[in-house]
Amino acid sequence: MNLKLKLQISLTTLILGICLSAFSTNKGKGMKDVFHGKFYIGTAMNTGQITGKDTASIRIIKQQFNTITAENCMKSGQLQPVEGKFNFRLADQFVEFGMQNKMFIVGHCLVWHSQAPKWFFADEKGNDVSREVLISRMKNHIQTVVGRYKGKVKGWDVVNEAILDDGSWRRSKLYTIIGPDFVKLAFKFAHEADPDAELYYNDYSMALPGRREGVLKMVKELQKDGIRINGIGMQGHCSLDFPKIEEFEKSILAFASMGVKVMITEMDISALPSPKDSQGADVDSRVEYKNELNPYTNGLPEEVEKAHAKRYLEFFDLFLKHQDKISRVTLWGVQDGQSWKNNFPVPGRTDYPLLFDRNYQPKSFITSLLAGAEASIPKR
């Protein structure tokens, strides 16, 4: 390594350290310290962070967060690309990182219609498997994965995104082959594999009245059948105008009334214009690129930056207001350049949805966010 490159790296490290020091509160606290006694504060980890290559992100994660979620490495397509052949290399590293740093580890996700291996739902001829075969495959996958990390992974997103905006069931292969019982079975299998782990249902657009009611109905049925469900994850994929804070609050209250924990998961707030009819987070949704949908390639205008800051502060004020009901708030990534929102639902955009910018520097509004947290009385 030449001297010039060494100096550049040293300078970058120094600047990052100064920025993080400024971001911390007066006594050198990070977000995890400021929110202590209120709720866990966390982030999702990607491959570069898990393997240790992204050292700047690793430093932020250790300083600021006390819970981590597997962004992609624990999805079924990555863990079991071929039937019966599991690849735990990256997932093992993720769990080990969490344990070494004494973090609350969340596995994401055991059962999801998307990012599953093609073989999971099909026979050798490409036809749908029988109900019995799919249940067997689901049970084997869940119990192998959960069993491997028993006592280490403290919470699991057992089922992901099974309900639609209108409250009806998503007609996924899981639903069409097994029926609605696939949710009950998934929770049952997970509980059998680790009776002490917390088990969650996770979904997006949970502020929509239809989806709210659909999830409430599903949870009531699980509870009626004696199935253990510990919490509901409200994905926080938001924009400057969606969802309405009032509706988000209604869902927090409604879910908490079921006697389960409420978690804000996958939190990010897009600063870009939302394409018509693309307010949700369906990963299969794609919108054609247009310049007017990518207006801020060189940074946010002052008025948009202020609106974005205000939006984040409004949501965190809401979380603090209901800290007695909320157990965790997880950001979906560390810095803007790594966010999936740069390619969803419009590929190739430049978005600014997270708390740290592309240079790993904290956004200016975080000082106000933390001040609000410090002024809030911890839940009893």
Question: Can you walk through the features of this model?
Answer:
- The chain has helices at 3-23, 31-34, 47-50, 55-64, 76-79, 89-100, 131-148, 173-178, 181-193, 209-224, 245-256, 302-321, 366-375; strands at residues 40-45, 67-70, 104-112, 155-160, 198-203, 231-238, 261-269, 326-331.
- α7 (131-148) packs parallel to α9 (181-193).
- With 380 residues, the chain is an alpha/beta fold.
- Residues 3-22 have low confidence and may be disordered.
- It has one domain (32-375): Alpha-Beta Barrel (TIM Barrel), CATH 3.20.20.
- It is globular and about 55 Å long.
- The protein is built from 13 helices and 8 strands.
What attributes characterize this protein structure?
8 strands, TIM Barrel, globular, 380 residues, alpha/beta, disordered N terminus, single chain, 13 helices, eight-stranded parallel beta barrel
Per CATH, the architecture is Alpha-Beta Barrel
Return the CATH topology. Answer: TIM Barrel
- Report the radius of gyration as a whole number of Å: 21 Å
> Average pLDDT value?
92
Counting structural domains, the number is 1
Helix-strand string: HHEHHEHHEHEHHEHEHEHEH
What is the CATH homologous superfamily assignment? Glycosidases
Helix content: 25-40%
Distance between the termini: 53 Å
Helix count equals 13
Which structural category do the helix and sheet elements fall into?
alpha/beta
CATH class: Alpha Beta
Percentage of residues in DSSP E strands: 5-15%
Largest sheet: 8 strands, parallel, barrel
Strand order of the largest sheet: 1-2-3-4-5-6-7-8
Q: Give the overall shape.
A: globular
